[in-house]
Specification:
The complex is a heterodimer of chains A (345) and B (316). Chain A is mainly alpha-helical and 345 residues long. Chain A is built from 17 helices and no strands. The two termini of chain A are 31 Å apart. The chains are: A mainly alpha (345), B mainly alpha (316).
Amino acid sequence: MSTTNPVAGAAPTDSAPQDDAGVPVVALPAQETSGTSSKDKRRAKRRESLARRGLPVGAGQSKTTQLLVLAGMGLAVIYSAGPIWWLIVASTKGQSDLYASTGFESLWFAEFNLWENLQQIFIYDDGYYLRWMLNSVLYAGVGSFVAMLISLAAGYGLARYEFWGKKAVFGAVVASFLLPSALLTIPLYLQFSSWGLVGTPWAVLIPSFISPFSVYLAKVYIEGAIPPELLEAARIDGAGEVRIFFQVVMRLMTTGAATIFLLAFVGNWNSFFTPLTMLGTAGKENWPLALGLYAWSGKRTLAGETIDGTSMLILGSLLAIIPLAIFMIAMQRFWKTGVTLGAVK
Amino acid sequence: MSQSLRHKSPAAPPRTRSPRITWRTLLAAKGAAFTMPFAIGFVILFILPIIYAVVQSLYAVKSSGLGLSGNQTVFVGLDNFVAAATDLRFWESMGRVAVFACIQVPIKLAVSLLLALGLDYLKGRVVAGLRIGLLVPYMIPGIVGTLVWIYLYSPDIGPLTEFGKFFSLDWNFLSEAMMWPSIGNLLTWDSIGFNMLIIYASLQAISPELFEAARLDGASEARIAFSIKVPFVRAALVLTGMLSIIGLLQIFAEPLLFRSFVPEVVTKDYTPTLMIFNQAFDANNYNYAAALSLIFAAVIATVSYLYYKFTNKPEA
C-alpha cells in the first residue's frame, strides 16, 4: 500500500494539465483565419503544427529538450541517491576491503562481510547500539506525540477563539523561529542541571514537547479545515468546549495532526544540539543514535586492535536510516499536506 | 518583549459563575485555556532561558586575589559584551558563516528551482520515480548524511579523491581551502529534494490555462518557466531562503563532525555556535557564552529583518 501511495495521491495533480491540454486538439485550418490579425495567424499555425505532430496543443515540447531535461533530472537522482549506494556497498565490506578499495572499486561489492559486521555492531562498545536506537525511537516518538497534542490545542485556541493576549502569543511563536538554539539551550542546560534533570531522558523530552513551528502549522491547518459554523452548531447542540475539541476538531484534524507529527518526528530524530548539551557528558545509556554515532566518529583512530571503528560507524550509519525511512514511507501521504502547508505561507 | 509575553495568557477566571462574567468572557477564557499548556511551556523553555542568559551575561567568574578561596561571581556590567565586540575569533566565525550563507543559499535554491521546473516540465509517469529518487537525502538522518559525505571525501576509503585523479584533478575535500565547499555540497545534497518538493507544490497550484494562453501566443517553454512559473513561486523561494539563512548561520553539527576527523582545519571557533558551545562547555565560561549568544541572536534578528525588507520590495 505504502509504496504506491505517493504516486496515486499525486496523480490527479500531475496529470491534470495534460488532460486539460488534451481537449482542444482540434486544430483550425489556416485559411479560415487568413483574414485576421497576424497574432491569430501565428496561433493557428502553431495549433496546426502541433496537431500535425500528433501532440495535444498544450505539449509544446520538443523530444530533444525533453530528453535533455530527463538526462539532467537523472543526474540529479544519481547525485541524491549515489552516496547511499556507496554506504550500502561499504557496509558489506570487511575493514581490509574498505581500505583496499578506493575510487571506482569503492562503488562495488568486495567480499561479502555484512553478517560479520552485523554481529559485531551489537557487541561493539559494550553493545550500546541497539539501546541508542530504541532511545531515538522513544525520544522522537513520545516527544513528537506530546508536542502534537499541545500544538493542536494551542493552534485551535489561537485559530478559533478571541482572547486577550492572543496576538502576543502568536507573535512570540513566529519570533521564536529567529532565536538561535545556542541562546536557549545553554541557559536551559544550567536550569535543568540545578533541577537534576541533566543526563536523564527528561532533559531531551521536555524541550521537544514545546514546538512553536508545530503550533504555527496547527493554526494554519485549523483555519482551513474547521469552519467556525461547525463549532457554533456543536455549541448550540449543547456540547462543551472540551468535548468539541476532542470529538469534533480532533476527528477533522487527522491529516493535519499526522503531518504535524511527521514533521516533528523528523526534526526530533535529526536533533543533535540539545541531546549533545543535555546528555553528552552523562552516561551512554540514555544517548540517542546521533550522539552514539558522533562518539564513534571521534574514536576512529583509537579502535585499532580488535574491531575497526570505521566499519562499525559505516554500518551504524546505514542501520540508523532504517527506522526513519520506514516511518517516512509509512507516513508518505502526509508529506504532501506538510509541503503544501509549508509552501502556502 | 519578554514583559508583554509574560502577560500573554490571562488566568482563567474562577469556575464559579458570578453573574458578571458574560458568556463571551467565559468562551475567551476557555479558548485561552487551550493555548495555556503551550504558553506555560513556552515561558519555561523560551522566555526564562533568555532572561537567564541576559542576567548571566552581566556577571563574570573571577578568581579572588590569592587564588586559594576559589572563584567568585561578580557583577561586571557590560564587560562581557565589550570583550565580545572586540573578540576577533567571534567575528571571524560570523564572517565565515555569513559568506557561506550568501553563496550556498542561492545555489541551493537555484538547483531546487531548476529541479522543480524540470519535474513540472516532464509530467507523467516518470515524475513519481524521479521525485522519490530526489527525496532520498530527506529520509537520511542529518548526522548520517554528514558522515557519509565525510567518508566519500576521505582519501583513505572514499571514491572522490580517486575520481579527481581520473580527471587529473588533485583535490583534497578535507583541506582548509575546500572545507566550506565540502560542507556546502553536503548541505545542498541534504536539502534540494525537500526544497524542490515545496517549490513543485506551488507550481502545481498555477492554473494550466495560463500556460495554454502563453503557448498559443507562441511563448517557448523556457519563456513560460521564467516569466510565469518563477514569479509564481517567488513567495515560497523567499520564505525557504529566509529559513535556510537562519539555519546556516547557526550551523553546528556538520562542522563539529568534520572536526572529529580534521581538527586542525575545523578549529573550535569555526562557526559562532561552535564557539559559543565551546565557551560554555569547554572553557566553562557560561557568562561569556551568554553574552556571545545574545549578540548572535541580535545579528540573526537584524539579518532576518533586512532580508524581509529587501525581499518584500515590490518588483518594478
